[in-house]
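Sample 1 of the test manifest.
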Amino acid sequence: MQPEIIPDERIAEFCCSGMPGDVLPVDIAGAKAIAAAVPVNEVERLPLIEASGRISASDIASAISLPLFDNSAMDGYAVRTRDFTESGPWRFFVSGRIPAGDGSGRRFPPASAVRIFTGAPLPAGFDAVVMQENCQRSDDTVTFAAKPTSGQNNRRGGEDVSAGSTTVAAGSLLTPGRIALLAATGVGDVEAWRRMRVALISTGSELREPGRKLGPGQIYNSNRYFLRSALAYPWAEIADYGIVGDDPETIRAVVRDAARVCDVVITTGGVSVGEEDHMMDVLRRENAELEVLKVSMRPGKPVTVGTIGNALFFGLPGNPYAAAVTFSRIALPAIKATAGLSDVATSWMPAVSGFSYRRKPGRTEYVPVTWARRDTDGKPVVEMLGRGSSASLNPMASARATAVLPPDMASIEPGMPLRIEPFCE
Ligand code: AMP
Ligand code: MG
């Protein structure tokens, strides 16, 4: 009996059992890759100044409150609101001066005002600061036309961070904001997960490195450069195996070595079922456990996800746009999970179509888009770049995002709501 050939538009009916031979929906394939990821579990201690872009390996609790003491939010005069009795204007003797960094803890008499500057500690018993623009100073007195409210321009101790609270959770990316918070709470060094190691292998006998001369039938290797650039994260370390020709024994030796020394192995090319496509054979002979063989996406239907020994393996298609989309959508979230990041979700935002497009339904399609204008709600009105061909590079070079067309969406018209995912930003 001939095996049934499933047309693209019926794929959805066949893709939900989750067996590796099935064509899986994108979200399921991505979830299987994340589930197969084993987070690194070795910790490195790093000076805070070198920890930017790394991933915290521990929950960090603040040893101090922020602010540590009540302090002035303005240059002006510290007062006690209870001294503003009867009706104004109110005139007070200026009893002293407190610049930022003054640690004297001096006390000042009631019914007086104290010249104070931004960040300087509020003197005991003084509960408000009147900004200098709202005061009239003459010699050693200052006059206020309005009665201040208690707490005005007073940055209260602990209003930002309370001592003992968690400022950064394990698995968080150490962003500039978090690094600043850690610095402000006095943290001098942090525990980060060691950098995860990812191997890159470009398969294809036709490939040459840019900068060299091309022979007949040869092309330049662009996938290696895409992936190096897309993986230039402080939490990743690249083992670049360069180009490996379409020879199964050589590919096998390189993949085996890469899987031994790296946490993740990425190959491009050779993942279809042509005579010169050797990845499946190599994976079988290396006893890979395969989770995903085909994904119901365009571009990039053949994309292999599995494990070889302790390494997570991604066999991406050779065509550049297909390699880029499958990397971003299927591989990257699982690579982030391997690195120890707790938030690995692909981010997206709502947009509006500025184009018409008819297509064969059945697969999730990733269309390269950009935008120059927004609608009245501020949503980007996106234009399609090229035809989303898996071999084209020019559209992806100009793309700010990919529009995600769900499997059942057959026609897209201007004004229709679309979901867009940032493209390698
Ligand atoms: P394959 O998946 O090996 O059948 O390759 C599909 C297409 O992608 C072929 O036209 C290859 O020449 C091309 N290709 C494969 N690898 C690369 C690469 N690293 N850079 C640019 N193009 C590639
Ligand atoms: Mg090939």
